[in-house]
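Notes from the 1:1 (GR / supervisor)

We went over the backlog. Supervisor wanted to see one worked example end to end before approving the batch request, so GR pasted a single chain during the call. The sequence is below; no edits were made to it. Supervisor asked that the structure be written out right there so they could see what the output format looks like.
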Amino acid sequence: DDFDHDVLSVHFSTLRVPADESWLSLTERPGYLRLRGRESLNSTFRQSLVARRVQALDFTAMAAVQFQPEHFQQMAGLVCLYDVENWYYLQISRDEQVGRCLNLLRSLNGRYDEPVTRVELPEQGAVHLRAAVSGATLRFAWSLDGRTWTTEGPPLDFTALSDEACRVGRFTGAFVGVCCQDLAGTRREADFDYFEYRESE
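Structure output shown during the call:
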């Protein structure tokens, strides 16, 4: 999806409420999905998240994001999730020492940690993000040009995003998508150029 239409594809879902112009726009910057940052991935209220259902055991999902965070409370990126307690998140944020940076975060049944933090990024330009799942294994990667990829972080257990592993819910299934947070309440926006979901043959 290159986000060239002014309505969201039927393949996408939002969390709890329909998409509306207060936090999502396909027209403010034509050819981009603009998300305004809201609450964290742990929030059961107002999240700025657009995702599609995972429908295969082997798939690759990719997105390109333009995002200029001003501080560490602003984040945007690619997420694999089951519910507010269970997710893996490759995101762009800002660190006081490093500047604009890439982080890998995870939450498993509410236990939060950061397998990778503060990979330095150029201050300007789009960053391509990729999640590749093969059976039980998830690997994240990133690229500045969409061609040369750097694998980031350890192999991750994708089965953690399942009915059997999650202690709450047990009905949503796994999703993959894009999201944006601004915990300072200033609604910093992230612009996504494309989102691609491709199942392995």
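Supervisor's comment: The mean pLDDT is 94.
Batch request approved.
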